[in-house]
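Hi R.,

Here's the chain you asked about this morning:
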Amino acid sequence: MILNYITWNVNPVALSLGPLQVRWYGILWALGFLLGYLMMKRVYKREKMPDNTLDNLLIYMLVSTIIGARLGHCLFYEPEYYLAHPLKMLAIWEGGLASHGGAIGILIGLWIYARRVKKPYIWVLDRIVMPIALVGALIRIGNLMNSEIYGVPTSLPWGFRFLRGQEQFCGSFDNYSPCDPLSGCCPPTEWLPCHPTGIYEALFCLIVLGILLWLYYKKDMGNKQPGLMLGLFMIVVFGSRIAIEFLKNAQVDFEQNMFLDMGQWLSVPFVITGIILWIRSARKRKNKIGA
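And here is the predicted structure, written out as tokens:
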């Protein structure tokens, strides 16, 4: 009998050097920033921007992403704990980064950056969403390597049995319940395969990346229709996040009885903003052509 699932038992640690552990998540995060830097280097060369402005962009992106993602996790998902233990917010090595917090941090950091390089804010955002889409895909693959942020049980043939996951599901696909593997609620052979939601989100990021590259290099929409690329990114990435969240486990206890979880509520403003940007961009383009 052929098993209709994939057994996932990948070690999240890629390399150990004594007490130092290099995890796949960190490697993919760093790789994303490196590839993103090279992508923006080509963009800045095409736009005839000075080299030092690109170096400054990398610094603003790194700092704003890390600070925003960490504060987002602490304040959106576990505010009671971190407000009671504020120094723990600095313990990034313990895990806990939120993509929505990272997005907010990036928006603030790039607003400051745009003022410094004397470029329109939308000019910077339209171009930075290309490497951000790539980084987003690699980060979600990093979540997969960590066996984290996966979905509810599924009988689909691409379901993953996450043997290193912190939460498992027992029972049948029609009537299952979550459990802690340490409690011995059922043997590992009975753990149910789950949706690999990290792969789903990574695929949407790669799809929007391909569309953005086509719009920028083939259609020159970064100059012809400012706001279009940013709007498209927000609609697809955060819209898919809302849809995929229905397949995910609740990340924190207070989400158990929510119709929309925290990730979905935080995604709604981004989708609405993306739609507004798309409509405004289309109207400006139409008016410009008609003038």
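One quick note: The chain has one domain: 6-48+120-290.

Cheers,
M.
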